[in-house]
């Protein structure tokens, strides 16, 4: 499978796309054409484990780049956590994706990216170019994303992970993983906002001589190596469910920056039989007008009780637009936008608990509410909706108890996430300061 920029037709390999993830002429990398995976997904049985699925599908997709032995190692070293599909009734299932190290579905993409990068770099060791066999992964982080990235890249051969944070407390990092203590993680705080951090990453990637010297790429969503592995859990839900499917299959996806939705669309393009996707949004729903055929206009950012969906200017927009540019009419039948307000989100958390005995985080509840609106709609619905549970309820204990009256048990791994840690350096939000900090650490 090859990749191209949303703004050009030059093809690059998967390895080039993940190790040099910002295309020269701007835009974002997307798969050029996708392979038909039906021979795998239609015939895998429901007993297939997640690592088995990944070890089968990944080398099929990445033919010529990732051999089956490498894929086995990647799957084994990545997935000590796996999705769970839970059928609630004839029309609804929940696919739980919040059992990774930081309790968000993003762990799936980040962990695979780190493992596959290490594998591909190790295969390169005989290459005599100076940067061959090593990479520096620059990522902007807020919330627990930094921990997910540090966890995934920590200790991997040939790689240094530089994580930059906006002003405010930094939490959950393990100082033993810092380069100053013999590890491969560098944490830098920027005196500025998260937007400053994202701008600095782009500036550093665009300083091509500097980026080439250190082999710089990014671990943020711009890296297509995070998008690809999200396809695997859609396949997983399908193989677990296919025996009971009689009518339509729809996924309800809590949608912020569109990454998860786009991965679902790729799963469909690869031949997974699916009838549609609900783009479940909170009040930040400018995408709805776009689907109806209007130009995409970023709305004003509205704060809600599902903060990961509070995205007004999605960085993945160009990737989504590439689908619509190809076949707008098909897309209008494939993606149904829905908007769920804060009150309905809380009510959905209550319903999920009272009716099915499950605790949902607010993001998953947005998708759950939208799914119920479809299955119980006036037109009748003959099919099955899979709700993606993207976040862990233990990270929203106050809201979950308010909605359900339940105390959420907190898994032990989360208490580490909340421990304050000191970054290695604090710098002003300028590229030369960032480059100086990197140079002094390496
Ligand atoms: C990031 C995030 C989302 C949104 O996913 P996108 O791929 O950005 O649309 C949904 N739920 C949770 C818990 C998240 O962390």
The termini sit apart by 34 Å
Number of strands: 16
- Rg, rounded, reads 21 Å
Average residue pLDDT: 94
**What percent of the residues sit in helical stretches (DSSP H or I)?**
40-55%
**Distinct ligand kinds:** pyridoxal-5'-phosphate
**Strand share of the residues?**
15-25%
Q: Which class do the helix and strand fractions yield?
A: alpha/beta
The DSSP helix count reads 19
Please give the largest β-sheet.
6 strands, mixed
Which ranges are low-confidence, i.e. pLDDT below 50, for 5 or more consecutive residues? none
Strands across the major sheet, in which order? Answer: 4-5-14-11-12-13
Write the layout of secondary structure elements.
Blueprint: E1 3-5, E2 11-12, H1 14-19, E3 29-31, H2 38-41, H3 50-61, H4 68-78, E4 84-87, E5 92-96, H5 106-122, E6 135-140, H6 145-153, E7 159-165, E8 170-171, E9 185-190, H7 194-206, H8 208-214, E10 216-218, H9 224-227, H10 230-241, E11 248-254, H11 259-269, E12 276-281, H12 287-291, H13 317-326, H14 328-334, E13 335-339, H15 342-356, H16 362-375, E14 383-389, H17 397-404, H18 412-417, E15 420-421, E16 425-427, H19 431-441
The chain binds pyridoxal-5'-phosphate.
């Amino acid at each position: 499978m090859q990749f191209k920029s949303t703004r050009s037709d030059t093809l690059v390999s998967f390895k080039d796309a993940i190790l040099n993830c910002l295309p020269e002429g701007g835009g974002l990398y997307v798969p050029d054409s996708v392979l038909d995976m039906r021979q795998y997904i239609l015939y895998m049985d429901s007993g297939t484990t997640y690592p088995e699925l990944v070890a089968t599908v990944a080398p099929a997709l990445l033919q010529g780049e990732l051999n089956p032995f490498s894929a086995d190692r990647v799957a084994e070293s990545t997935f000590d956590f796996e999705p769970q599909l839970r059928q609630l009734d004839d029309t609804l299932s929940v696919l739980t994706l919040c059992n990774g190290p930081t309790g968000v579905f993003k762990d799936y993409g980040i962990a695979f990216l780190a493992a596959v990068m290490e594998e591909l770099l190790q295969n390169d060791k005989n290459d005599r170019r100076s940067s061959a066999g090593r990479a520096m992964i620059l990522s902007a982080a807020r919330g627990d994303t930094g921990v997910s990235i540090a966890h995934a890249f920590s200790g991997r051969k040939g790689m240094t992970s530089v994580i930059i944070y906006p002003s405010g407390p930094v939490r959950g990092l393990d100082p033993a993983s810092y380069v100053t203590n013999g590890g491969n993680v560098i944490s830098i705080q920027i005196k500025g906002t998260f937007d400053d951090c994202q701008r600095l990453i782009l500036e550093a990637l665009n300083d091509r001589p500097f980026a080439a010297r250190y082999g710089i790429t990014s671990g943020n969503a711009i890296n297509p190596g995070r998008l690809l592995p999200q396809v695997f859990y859609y396949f997983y839900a399908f193989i677990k469910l296919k025996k009971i499917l009689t009518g339509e299959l729809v996924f309800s996806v809590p949608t912020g920056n569109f990454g998860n939705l786009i991965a679902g669309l790729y799963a469909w393009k690869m031949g997974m039989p699916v009838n549609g996707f609900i783009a479940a949004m909170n009040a930040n729903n400018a995408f709805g007008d776009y689907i109806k055929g209007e130009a995409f206009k970023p709305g004003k950012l509205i704060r809600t009780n599902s903060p990961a969906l509070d995205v007004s200017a999605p960085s993945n927009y160009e990737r989504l637009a590439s689908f619509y540019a190809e076949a707008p009419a098909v897309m209008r039948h494939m993606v149904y936008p829905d908007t769920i307000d804060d009150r309905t989100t809380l009510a959905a958390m209550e319903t999920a608990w009272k009716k099915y005995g499950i605790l949902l985080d607010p993001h998953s509840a947005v998708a759950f509410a939208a799914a119920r609106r479809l299955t119980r709609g006036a037109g009748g619905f003959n099919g099955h909706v899979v709700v993606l549970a993207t976040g862990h309820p233990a990270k929203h204990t106050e809201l979950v108890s308010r909605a359900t009256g339940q105390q959420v048990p907190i898994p032990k791994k989360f208490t580490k996430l909340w421990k304050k840690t000191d970054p290695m350096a604090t710098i002003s939000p300028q590229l030369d300061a960032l480059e100086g900090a990197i140079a002094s650490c390496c």
